[in-house]
Amino acid sequence: MSAEPESRGRGKREETKASNRQAIIDAARRVFAELGYGATTVRDIIRATKLASGTFYNYFKSKEEVFQALQDETALRVRPRLRAERIRARNFEEFISGSFRAFFDFVKTDKVTFATMRENQDLENVRIDTPEVIAGFDELRVDLELAIKNGVMPDTDPDLLMAAMVGVAFEVAGHLVRRSDLTVEHAAKFATALFLGGVQALPRRSEATPSA
Amino acid sequence: MSAEPESRGRGKREETKASNRQAIIDAARRVFAELGYGATTVRDIIRATKLASGTFYNYFKSKEEVFQALQDETALRVRPRLRAERIRARNFEEFISGSFRAFFDFVKTDKVTFATMRENQDLENVRIDTPEVIAGFDELRVDLELAIKNGVMPDTDPDLLMAAMVGVAFEVAGHLVRRSDLTVEHAAKFATALFLGGVQALPRRSEATPSA
DNA sequence: GTTAAAGTTGACGCAGCGTCATGAATGTCT
DNA sequence: AGACATTCATGACGCTGCGTCAACTTTAAC
Fold this sequence. Notes:
2 copies of one chain form a homodimer.
Chain A: H1 12-35, H2 42-47, H3 53-59, H4 63-88, H5 92-109, H6 111-118, E1 124-126, H7 131-149, H8 158-178, H9 184-199, H10 205-208
Helix pairs in contact in A: 1-4, 4-5, 4-7, 5-8, 5-9, 7-8, 8-9
The structure holds a DNA duplex.
């Protein structure tokens, strides 16, 4: 009666704590997907689990917080892919096209997650502003700044460029999910071409920005 | 005891109907701005009015629906401006730059509306998918298709181009609201340059798309 | 002035919210 | 091993918002 298969030496306490938390997150994912974020109640989530209602609040303050946890899980899966693409890139073109391709690829294969993440059957949506997601955006901006410093890219406003890439990525991804005739390949080519062609024409910081 | 100042010959019935509806919408605008969309309840809205709770449901099905009405009011103000800019445009450059400038201009002068529209103090956001807004997007797409037909623009996927413009517009607008050092002028120049430069490089439909 | 239609009102039943006293399970110390 | 302390699950509780509906009031029609 020894040698538990569970990860080494964690006390039973931590054990169930982790498993309860995960149970709630998993239930939440299922319920959000089924009812949509707006229509889901904390009670719906906890009912989809073996736990009692009070227990929910030992782990999360609200359904928003569970949703954030889901977002973070997702971002945690996507970020490394994007990172890898960008590190692998040997020039600016690969940097851009790799990023878009990786993101669109994720979106297409993981439609459900993206759909739940982006919009629900109602009009309710949730801002994608969890720490993990913000960190992902920041990573992109830092890399853009690096590209500028290395002279691979014109010295333009990296904030705006990041915003533009994010905007295009998400909005095009929306079409990618909805339109069946649209391939990842095509979407990525489109976005890449737009930015490669456009970046050269962007206003340089020395010209237009008043300073900070 | 005659000659009411109110618009001609409308019965008293229609009169109060319109005024009640507007009272609810106005109250909603105030309350959303104060509490944020997520935290606001139908009761909060109706309490900010002289009406009884039941009356709310004679005019709207839910707070979502009032919000949509607000969105539509906003879109109704923005659309004509965008339309005007595009009609005035004598070439593709003016088409693009006019659109962005008009939109950013609206956003900057009407920060509150845009902020309430886009995000609330919580993480909650609402999808901007009301009929009026969609119609605005469609208008843009139709104009893009026209530009393609006229040979002013390469024959690329107008859906994706529209998505890209919308994505950039909204995401950059977000920065415009937050960053005080960012001018409408700069943001518009940025977005315009990106698209003018980028569009030329976009994949043509004859090359890449398999068809419909 | 009478009657019909339309619209307003607030009380009602129902459901979800977040809390908290209770008790069970786990860890600790001797 | 047993006794005590700690941590945590539980579900009932009070509260608030939801959407409905029967009763009433106001306007329109004749």
